[in-house]
Design goal:
Strand content of chain B: under 5%
CATH topology of chain A: MetI-like fold
CATH architecture of chain A: Orthogonal Bundle
Oligomer: heterodimer
CATH superfamily of chain B: MetI-like
Number of strands of chain B: 0
Protein name (chain A): Acriflavin resistance protein
Strand content of chain A: under 5%
Order of helices and strands of chain A: HHHHHHHHHHHHH
CATH class of chain B: Mainly Alpha
Helix content of chain A: over 70%
Shape of chain B: globular
Membrane topology (chain A): Multi-pass membrane protein
Radius of gyration of chain B: 22 Å
Radius of gyration of chain A: 23 Å
Helix content of chain B: over 70%
Largest interface: A-B, 76 and 80 residues
CATH architecture of chain B: Orthogonal Bundle
Number of strands of chain A: 0
Distance between the termini of chain A: 37 Å
Number of helices of chain B: 12
CATH superfamily of chain A: MetI-like
Largest sheet of chain B: none
Family (chain A): Belongs to the binding-protein-dependent transport system permease family. CysTW subfamily.
GO cellular component, one term (chain A): plasma membrane
Structural class of chain A: mainly alpha
Distance between the termini of chain B: 45 Å
CATH topology of chain B: MetI-like fold
Structural class of chain B: mainly alpha
Main location (chain A): membrane
Largest sheet of chain A: none
CATH class of chain A: Mainly Alpha
């Protein structure tokens, strides 16, 4: 008993750090979301989130996050499946994984610059399409500073993240399962529909939730790309912290609280799904 | 047929990922009219603000790594040795920075450490620097902790500790001269990831008003045409360098592990 009494001293620095720079600041915002300027308990801030401007910003944020998560999952899965079981030569995999490691960390301001230089009004691809094929994508309604522009940009770190997470899961599919299915007369389609996909399903859904949260909380790329012209939640919160654009500090806390709720739910889904997926990966 | 679709998927991905890189490089060379030149790079490198902010962020990144190591290595070691029941709790806390968006945390900093609070860190430049440093260490916590914990899992922590103690080593000696060198590879991989994260970080630095590289890049992007592309190439090079070194180290250590 005496030993246990002193052992906890060793983790005091860690807990102090976590408390001071992670837990307390977050709690502070959450509590602020339920307080009025006089410090009394209220639900008015949360009710204030239903103003059209804020609802719109949450709607477009969720739409962008859904689109990048769905497309990131599909494309990433296709590329990972191609490398793991598509009969490609072995040298393809290592560079792809290395590149994915780099690209999944290449987010933020420089990523926005890269896409402006490529698909902006005088970007390389925009110019080449016009010169070679006479296609003016901006005249056709494309705009990098829009929903699809943002989605296209976010995919640059979403697809690699999917590849990094799903490749081990695909490699965990045992050859025996496929052979057993084939012995029992299953076609390739049946094997995928009835064996592989049900096993992979928790991994897929979990990674989807992770990609969703990843895109929902991203600030820098969107800010450098669109300035404040596309009012997604993080951008609005950024403007709110800088200059109180909502003219109600406590509405700002409620908005931040809303962000925690959305990313928290997405991550909870990820954790639950991953623990389910691990049942098959032993 | 299967192989065709596989190649198609990889080719599609390769085009999507290579075009922005080629586009950025091409754009960064376009500053002088009618010919390719390195003018944009010269302009960036000659800018005193570039050197100041880049230097600031490099120093911050190194300090973040130092702080991260000081917090994570003793904690992960101690939990493995004496408090294994706490491991899930610690692991959960280290994952929180991935759940709570950085912008919310920094919002909390501004509220909690303002000039009228008990700990008025944002009142002075030094205080704000310390706050930003702690924020960065918090951002890097998930990566650092997981790397170090994986490294520790390959060691017999208990036996090593008992051996050191029987030779008369104190706790500082055990952690600094025994545990740290043994998980150095893991620490390095955590360190490179932290470096890549901190060097271009925008949100925290911008909201705390610190002259870091991320806000500088954003400002330049809003005001110039060709320099941002050059900056993006430089930033991509730094990220690539960090990840390359990370892979190199894990491969070297992998070789050593199988050799011994």
């Amino acid at each position: 008993m005496k030993q246990i009494g002193w052992n906890w001293l060793g983790v005091v620095p860690f807990f102090a750090f976590a408390l001071l720079f992670l837990v307390l600041p977050t709690m502070n915002i959450v509590i602020g979301a339920f307080q009025n300027p006089q410090g009394e308990f209220t639900l008015r801030n949360l009710a204030g989130l239903s103003s059209p401007r804020i609802v719109d910003s949450f709607a477009i944020s969720i739409k962008v996050s859904l689109a990048t998560a769905i497309l990131g999952c599909l494309i990433g899965f296709a590329m990972a499946a191609a490398v793991v079981m598509g009969g490609l030569p072995g040298w393809v995999k290592a560079p792809l994984m290395t590149f994915s490691g780099v690209a999944s960390n290449f987010a933020g301001v420089p990523l926005a610059f890269a896409f402006i230089a490529t698909l902006g009004r005088i970007g390389l691809v925009t110019m080449l399409l016009r010169q070679w094929f006479g296609i003016n994508i901006y005249a056709m309604g494309f705009n990098l500073l829009s929903f699809w522009g943002l989605t296209l940009t976010y995919l640059f770190f979403q697809i690699p993240l999917m590849i990094l997470i799903i490749t081990p899961a695909l490699e965990g599919l045992k050859r025996e399962w496929r052979e057993a299915a084939e012995v029992l007369g299953a076609s390739t389609g049946q094997y995928w529909r009835m064996v592989a996909l049900p096993i992979l399903f928790p991994s897929l859904l979990g990674t989807f939730a992770l990609l969703f949260a990843n895109s929902f909380g991203a600030v820098a790329t969107a800010y450098a790309l669109t300035g404040s012209s596309l009012s997604i939640v993080p951008i609005m919160l950024f403007a709110q912290i800088r200059g109180d654009v909502l003219q109600d500090p406590h509405l700002g806390y409620a908005m931040a609280f809303g962000m925690i709720v959305v990313t928290g739910l997405a991550n909870l889904a990820y954790v639950i799904m991953r623990s389910r997926a691990e049942r098959w990966m032993r | 047929m299967k192989r065709f679709w596989s190649w198609a998927a990889i080719a599609f991905g390769a085009i999507y990922f290579l075009l922005p890189l080629i586009g950025t490089i091409e754009f960064s060379l376009r500053m002088r009219r009618g010919e390719y030149s390195l003018d944009a790079y010269a302009s960036v490198l000659a800018d005193p603000n570039f050197r100041a902010t880049f230097g600031y962020s490099v120093v911050m990144a190194l300090l973040t790594i130092l702080l991260g190591v000081l917090i994570v290595v003793p904690t992960a070691y101690w939990v493995r040795l004496r408090l294994p029941r706490l491991r899930p709790v610690i692991e959960f806390i280290t994952l929180l920075p991935l759940v709570i968006p950085a912008i919310v945390v920094v919002f909390g900093y501004i509220r909690l450490y303002n000039t009228s609070s008990v700990l008025p860190l944002t009142g002075t430049a030094t205080g704000t620097n310390i706050l930003l440093l702690c924020g960065y260490a918090m951002l890097a916590l998930p990566y650092m902790y997981r790397a170090v914990d994986t490294g520790l899992s390959t060691l017999d922590v208990r036996a090593l500790t008992e051996a050191a103690q029987s030779l008369g080593a104190g706790w500082v000696g055990i952690i600094g001269r025994l545990i740290l060198p043994n998980v150095l590879g893991a620490v390095m991989s955590g360190a490179f990831l932290s470096f890549a994260i901190v060097i271009g970080e925008f949100t925290m630095a911008a909201l705390l008003n610190r002259p870091a590289f991320g806000p500088y890049m954003q400002l330049l992007g809003a005001n110039r045409a060709y320099e941002p592309a050059a900056l993006a190439v430089i930033a991509f090079g730094v990220t690539w360098g960090c990840m390359g070194l990370l892979q190199l180290i894990s491969r070297l250590l992998g070789v050593r592990k199988t050799a011994t």
